[in-house]
Hints:
Structural class: alpha/beta
Order of helices and strands: EEEHEEEEHEHEHEEHEHEHEHEEEEEH
CATH topology of the largest domain: Rossmann fold
CATH architecture of the largest domain: 3-Layer(aba) Sandwich
Number of domains: 2
Strand content: 25-35%
Number of strands: 19
Mean pLDDT: 95
Radius of gyration: 20 Å
Helix content: 10-25%
Number of helices: 9
CATH superfamily of the largest domain: Class I glutamine amidotransferase (GATase) domain
Largest sheet: 10 strands, mixed
Amino acid sequence: MxxxxxxxxxxxxxxxxFPGSLHGPDDVVGEVVFTTAMTGYGExxxxxxxxxxxxxxxxxxxxxxxxxxxxxxxAAPTLRGxxxxxxxxxxxxxxxxxxxxxxxxxxxxxxxxDVDTRALTRHLRRAGTMAGRISREARGGIPEASCQLxxxxxxxxxxxxxxxxxxxxxxxxxxxxxxxxLRQLAAxxxxxxxxxxxxxxAAVEGAAAAGVVLSNGPGDPALMPEFAxxxxxxxxxxxxxxxxxxxxLLALGYGGRTFKLPFGxxxxxxxxxxxxxxxxxxxxxxxxxxxxxxxxxxxxLVVTERHLNDGTVEGLRHSQRPVFSVQYHPEAGPGxxxxxxxxxxxxxxxxxxA
Length: 354
């Protein structure tokens, strides 16, 4: 499905209006965020952590290399809308199977092009993320974007992603996972089972898992106490790795606290510093919330990594159990591959425990 471009606007809840050209349906509401990733718009469009959000691409030209189905994080787009400066509707790349306009249009996701994304991003950096609407004209009254989207994005039933081989079984609890997490675990030698967030303990037991991964996902972790409790229950029984939302839920489960960042960390160039003499890494990130370090004093969790731009918590480990977590995305998709060794190290840990 394709749409003829027509004049439209992105209207923010604080009254600011940014004009552009609409490709797709109008009257779409979501939290407006920006990402500094220069490539990877196909992966961004299919990352469940962007569910409910209108994503602003800060890199000016989008669509040049089209969409490669093999590089997507889910079969269909998950974001609410895409805002770009310059849209290339006719891609040119050997692996491209369709253009970004057609790919999003088939799913009913609008693109607003010809927007001054530099001015928009500068405004979001000053004012913070907020609700917005893509529509043909500004009319106010923007409803608050939903922050409880995990059950919409997650699987309802468990399934095997990689069952063959003799490697340890890893159960990935799906809070809105990215497919590359599963690919990287399999590449590290694990057999991979995906468990639903509801009934996760029974599903992990049924798969005879040796370890658990708590996946990424959308929304405010503080509004998910049931999943935070699940995260702790799993970590008390199995070696556990938390990623992004999984990292936050693990901290909440052990009594920590999270808070909303002014405009989040979203992009493929975020520097993270490690302790214990390990070199730092450039990482892929996509989150609007962070773990409050001052809330961890009475917990068994120890901070192991920090964001080098603002000092926020990027990694945790349990002081007594084989449990650790990272706020960034070690699987990348898009982004640098420097942190992918996280999966090999985790599979090695559970192989030794099993």
